[in-house]
């Protein structure tokens, strides 16, 4: 039993030693007085160097980021709508600037905040959906494109240290962000000629009133970002030991 345990530990150590985490992230002493300044540099390096993804860590390309599909349902008084989006590409993250960062970490809790600015984000993909307004029904499908500028937001990651096979890691359990957006413009095509005039009208109204609509759809978007953020963060935090990512040298 001891021999098997030793072999497992040795195999894990060899596996993680093969990952040069400093290739993607700057290492910061979690108890250093300069931890926040170090984190700004670390995240900025990670945003740039992980843009194309990492086979070592299992992190997918982040710019553009591909989400295979997303389902959305909206009900508000007389308005009902359902939409299935697919092959969704989100581009622009790699041009982001890290403005500030704050870390609170010990043996029991992990909390990281990163203030970000992204000058431009473009989201495009395919869609298929339908909706109704009172007795009026609409079916539509085609391509969509949404452009946003001057995004200001904070990543908030919460996690718990966790021992796996005798090695301490951090499991991220929550990811939160709420971007403030400077401008937003949406375009879409509609391959259904019967409903195209109505979708054209809908897009014009959407672009003229995007701010209140954005706030209304924000909780749905945040739920989606939370799932994506947790999954991607844990590709790193559950693969690289806590004391390797954030050593306690002080």
Automatic annotation (TrEMBL):
<feature type="signal peptide">
    <location>
        <begin position="1"/>
        <end position="17"/>
    </location>
</feature>
<dbReference type="InterPro" id="IPR010562">
    <property type="entry name" value="Haemolymph_juvenile_hormone-bd"/>
</dbReference>
<protein>
    <submittedName>
        <fullName>Uncharacterized protein</fullName>
    </submittedName>
</protein>
<dbReference type="InterPro" id="IPR038606">
    <property type="entry name" value="To_sf"/>
</dbReference>
<keyword id="KW-0732">Signal</keyword>
<dbReference type="GO" id="GO:0005615">
    <property type="term" value="C:extracellular space"/>
</dbReference>
<dbReference type="Pfam" id="PF06585">
    <property type="entry name" value="JHBP"/>
</dbReference>
